[in-house]
Design goal:
alpha/beta; 3-stranded mixed β-sheet
Length: 383
Amino acid sequence: MKSFEFVLPTHIKFGEGVSQNIANEVKALGHKKPMVVTDKGLIAVGIVGKITACLEEAGIEYCMFDEIEPNPRDTTVMRGYALAQAEDADMMIAIGGGSSMDTAKAIGVLMTNGGKVGDYEGLDMFENPISDLIAIPTTVGTGSEVTFWSVITDTTRHFKMSLGSPKCAAKIALVDPDLVATLPASIIAATGMDALSHAVEGYTCKLSEPITDACGIYAIKLIGENIRNAVYSDDKEAKGNMLLGSMIAGICFGNSDIAGIHCMGEALGGLYDTPHGVTMALLLPYVTEYNYVADLDKYANIAEALGEDVRDIPKRDAAKKAVDALFKLCEDLCIPTMKQIGAKEEDLDELAQRASVNVSVDSNPRKATKEDFLNIFKKAFEA
């Protein structure tokens, strides 16, 4: 039997309206002044106000850091840290997608360890747990509310660096389907495919184990059954299921790893500042096409979870159906191509080099060199 460890430091509370309990959660943790970490768009549409109103009603003072952008930068983290210090904030509330939560985690590292965010790149590179964090997701993609990783763009290298440790996990995740009921279709498509990439990679990577396998294949099925309805209708249940699938996918890859899709997608996002979910979505079928031969059983299971009929056919053909299903899903959801996001042919070699040195490259189910990544990038670029 394979030995493994499974860690879930975050207390999950899932259900309609759970975000409205934020004041009680802050009080239960014994804090007096949280810093809310979010973006201006969520403030403009009123989502943040629904949560901060609960703090105000309970008489809880808070400060606001609303400078979050897609692919959060080290410079943004440093500004947030400076505000937390100036305001004497003693905990954080992250409201938003992965960018808000990753930024909050990185700020939290600095609040308890000092220094600069780049000092802690890698796994288990800081000593003290982050300041308490309550994570409230408003997209159906990253699962960052339950992972212990923070991905931050190094603005000097134009490179996405990862800070990882159970010590940077959120203390509490308030996962509220009400907050995704009005998500735009394009956001559901991109972030939902990001969640699917988490589940696929967490399930198939070399560090997978029985508990992550169970979470991964369930998340794939849940996302596959709901993503089209969530994008193309006002089906609140489908959107809630996407939020649940995203969270379970986060539990999956947070305890196994990501792999080639993220190695390549993070290279794209780091160079072009393309939204993370879009890069994951457009590369998902191409990397799966490269990987599926490495584990025919698991990719056949993925095909079946995505609704493909794999009965009474050779295992290799069954596994290949996972690739076909993912290409069809990208087509149905109108996921853009590399050319449409502004990628340049002369950058492909640089992108392949960046992918080949990603921290998760050795977790890919099939060995992938720079040349292999370059060939995949070329195929995706020519599509």
